[in-house]
Fold this protein.
Amino acid sequence: MKAFTTLAAAAVVLATGIASAEHHEAFAGAIGNANRIEANSERDGARKPDQVLEFIGLDADDVVLDYGAGGGYWTELFSGVVGDGGKVYAHQRAGERYDQREPALTAQFSPFGNIELMPLASGAALPLGDASVDTIMVSYLYHHMHYADGSGEAFPDSSKALFGEFRRVLKPGGTIIIIEHAAIDGSGRAESGAWHRTPPEMAKADIASVGFEFAGEAPEIFHNPDDDLKNTWYETGLRGKTTTFVQKYRKPE
């Protein structure tokens, strides 16, 4: 496992360039931030935040939208990297479930000082200015975006509209990061969606079709040779152990 981790780290360096000592210090500080809740810190072994943060390449003072932030795993880490001069928007789907969780999330994020909760109804426009965001994270959500009932093998119109909003709010050169359970390439949308997975090549084609440039992939960060990429991972004992792809897309300058 140690050898694999070393190879994975090297692959990220090749894909992204060597991060500066200042960046590494920021990543380490974010991971070790005492304000992080224990439930999130306990996931670091599976989520490998040092390698993912290096691939993403955030800078101090950046503005980040964590779309579908959930329990705030990446939200908390991004907060530490962008610092006091930056901002992290923690998007949540508005509704009864969010209303029940809002007091706990507010208490969780308040010590960070630069996190703002963003509850939003499905399909609503993002309440952000044009060209105001540096990076958007979409973590383990794309399998809900690449297929919709009735869309067949086409990228759903609802997802095209969402990525149109992403393009609007991103600065020129701004990036989208997709982290997703990998499905075997060649599988259909309904089939892979039922597995709660997405074929990596499908994601590339979809996101390129709405005006983004593919800017790289971090190979081998999350690779499990025992994952055949065509199973429903939470039914097969692969929770936290799937082969997962990490891709970066850029809004054209």
